[in-house]
DNA sequence: CATCCGACTGAACAGATTGCCCAGTGAACA
DNA sequence: TGTTCACTGGGCAATCTGTTCAGTCGGATG
């Protein structure tokens, strides 16, 4: 039987990061929307052979485009309904120590070093606003941290998402 | 055969969010470390019956503790290696419009409304530092936004994580 | 104290899925 | 032209899933 797969060959290698083609995009989006469906069901939905989906998925994972399929855990449901962002100013040369310190605090969900006013920015969670004080004390109670400024999250109108970016990356280039 | 499962009954309901017990914690951590293993393999590793793991997983999901298993996509691998955080000041009463506007920008990966200096905080990605300018222009090019201050991410010493928090939630309580 | 209930165990079953293999086709490329 | 690569469509054994069942145990209830 003739294969009309030719139109799929759109992939181009970029200097930074791999590009993904339309089929890759559809795989990721489908997976994001219904994470439980397997390779077989995906191949049916996408109208391609199972082996193709399997190969694409393998490539996406070894490319690093898909890092993994870990469970998305809701801190609020764990009893940590308060989220905050803290901007930290670090004493010169203490960066590494501060990183190591913050990595030991479970309530620090992520940490970035940044340009701009602060030197670092981290996302915190806490059991309550009162508990946030405890967390911040623990975060800031370290010699290398000069100052911290905290913004408490009230609403989260756009939860962490990737689909629109994937669609843009897959379509437009 | 006698079952020694009694020691597992530790769960307590909290006013905000469900608590998780030790077994729940081990399930989540195991799943986070090796997302591809199935229920059967988990039951073997954890030394409990398959039905138990299955029931726990179902409960964790209906509880909302586990939101889903969507693929973790790396924006850098998609060609968006630059991440930034933008703090936005919003004109009074324009919040809803700004939310809607930002939701249409694929490079806006998440958006929060916050207390503190700014009114909103969003995470952006871009193809390059130059491209970040385009993204910011698009974000800020909206009437309701008074001012934006951006911090570019250099390093990410602690990538978004949940395991330490899960372990604390499962053990401590 | 007797009983009920919820959670767990261990086992079973059919049906579906996975991992793996293969030969053949078509497009791009040298 | 010949090679390489991606995809198709098929098949196979091994595994896993979804589901059900009876039985055990501890905690809570009355």
Short summary:
The structure is a homodimer of 173-residue chains. Chain A is of the alpha+beta class.
Poorly predicted residue ranges of chain A: 1-16
CATH topology of the largest domain in chain A, what is it called?
Alpha-Beta Plaits
Return the string of H and E elements of chain A. Answer: HHHEEEHEEHEH
How do the strands line up in the largest sheet of chain A?
A: 4-5-3-6
| CATH level 1 name of the largest domain in chain A | Alpha Beta
**What coarse outline of chain A follows from CA principal-axis ratios?**
elongated
Q: Which percent bin holds the helix content of chain A? A: 25-40%
H/I helix tally of chain A: 6
Cα end-to-end separation of chain A: 32 Å
- Which architecture of the largest domain in chain A would the CATH scheme give at its second level? 2-Layer Sandwich
Structural account:
Two copies of one chain form a homodimer. The first copy, chain A, has helices at residues 22-33, 39-46, 50-63, 95-103, 129-140, 163-171, and strands at residues 66-68, 72-73, 82-90, 108-114, 120-126, 145-158. By secondary structure, chain A is an alpha+beta fold. Chain A has two domains: 5-70, Arc Repressor Mutant, subunit A; 75-152, Alpha-Beta Plaits. In chain A, strands 4-5-3-6 form a four-stranded antiparallel sheet. Chain A is elongated and about 60 Å long. Chain A starts with 21 loop residues before the first helix and ends with a helix. Residues 1-16 of chain A have low confidence and may be disordered. At the A-B interface, helix 1, strand 1, strand 2, strand 3 and helix 4 of A face helix 1, strand 1, strand 2, strand 3 and helix 4 of B. Chain A binds a DNA duplex (30 and 30 nucleotides) through helix 2 and helix 3.
